[in-house]
Amino acid sequence: MMVDRELFVSAPGKVILHGEHAVVHGKVALAVGLNLRTFLRLRPGKDNGTVEINLPNIGTKLTWKISDLQALVPSFHNSPESKPLGPSPEQLDFLKTFAGFSNGTTDTESLAVLAFLYLYLSICGQALPSLEIVVWSQLPTGAGLGSSAAYSVSIAAALLATSGKISIPAQENIRWTQAELTLINSWAFQGEKVIHGNPSGVDNAVGTWGGALRFQAGEINPIERVPVLEILLTNTCVPRSTKTLVAGVKDKLLKFPGIMEPVLSSINAISEECQRVLQAGVEGLTIEQYSVLEELIDINQHHLNVIGVGHPSLDRLCQATTSHGLHSKLTGAGGGGCAITLLRPDIEPSVVDAVKQELSAYGYQCWRTSIGAPGVSLHSSSMLPEDVTRSFNKA
Ligand SMILES: Nc1ncnc2c1ncn2[C@@H]1O[C@H](COP(=O)(O)OP(=O)(O)O)[C@@H](O)[C@H]1O
Ligand SMILES: C[C@@](O)(CCOP(=O)(O)O)CC(=O)O
Ligand SMILES: [Mg+2]
């Protein structure tokens, strides 16, 4: 198949306020889009006979011949118009053998490449197009901010658009329809399965729709009005794999169901209470409401330690922020990665500066951010942020 135009797509990262891990086991999570995004550039292939994927964040650039990939197509029977089925263990084994990855591999490159190949073959199976794709992210990878979902959402959207399964909106402020977003989300969920093993689907839902969402057992409910919340987002820079952490929680739940299930139920109750407080305070939270949010953060951080996803780097972070009267919890899969610290409006800027300085001295990276960002979007090249254009030009 011939592709005749260049496309630019982006999807946001996310912050889970409450409910990480519990959401994998059917509990409620509250999550919001983050104003750090993953950008994808898709171009027709130079020689029409190859597919190239270039991932500058992880230093990966690979090219395959379409004629070689064609041999894999019969194993990918998904119908892109309907609900996707895969990925089956057999399909993943095929891909690992094809790409030369050993069985059981979970490193950054292999997960990214397997997710791409799975989506490319499943979505474009009927007529494999020759493409050059670059994916570059403002998000740290493997830090709890949903880079895997932003990656899967942008690849799914670009491949569905280029193969004519969803429209290519003529202007960048025109969004895809709900049906098209639902299709993007369901394919991105399959990409997340390759990367997370057993994802809940909350991250790809935020990557697709953005904003603030309540997510439970596949049900996605946008929270239309949320009070403005300022947070300090801190990356401990301790690397970890969501797949491994999610599997660890499952093992603990199987080993100690009577002990772990009540903890997950309590996390569920925290999400419910947080949503209640946020909705009661849409016009602006009172100091009492902020205090409740802070307590919920503290309780949840203890629970996350109990289910085994804490880390000494996160303990240090919580101690540092507590000593300045601020409250923090890990966000995402934990085991290192990122934490959020709630910034009440009455906090003196000098306190935030002191906290940031202390955390930087540990080698952590901090951003002050407010939550809520638009979901998957199409861009024109002239409207891309400067850092994105620079990265694409270098790639
Ligand atoms: N920009 C990117 N380039 C290449 N791979 C990416 C990118 N973003 C995400 N990934 C893939 O997602 C994985 C990280 O996903 P995960 O462990 O779920 O952490 P998180 O989603 O919190 O960042 C990486 O190991 C890599 O395979
Ligand atoms: C731990 C979990 O709840 C969130 C993982 O987020 P991240 O990949 O660490 O950004 C897993 C999931 O919901 O699929
Ligand atoms: Mg992830």
UniProtKB/TrEMBL annotation:
Main location, first listed in the record: cytoplasm
Residue ranges of every copy of the GHMP kinase C-terminal domain listed in the record: 293-359
Top EC category: transferase
GO molecular function terms listed in the Swiss-Prot or TrEMBL record: ATP binding; metal ion binding; mevalonate kinase activity
Subcellular location: Cytoplasm
InterPro entries given in the database record: GHMP_kinase_C_dom, GHMP_kinase_C_sf, GHMP_kinase_N_dom, GHMP_knse_ATP-bd_CS, Mev_gal_kin, Ribosomal_Su5_D2-typ_SF, Ribsml_uS5_D2-typ_fold_subgr
GO BP terms, alphabetized: cholesterol biosynthetic process; isopentenyl diphosphate biosynthetic process, mevalonate pathway
EC number: 2.7.1.36
Reactions it catalyzes: (R)-mevalonate + ATP = (R)-5-phosphomevalonate + ADP + H(+)
GO CC term, one of those recorded: cytosol
Pathway where it operates: Isoprenoid biosynthesis; isopentenyl diphosphate biosynthesis via mevalonate pathway; isopentenyl diphosphate from (R)-mevalonate: step 1/3
Family assignment from sequence similarity: Belongs to the GHMP kinase family. Mevalonate kinase subfamily.
Protein name as catalogued: Mevalonate kinase
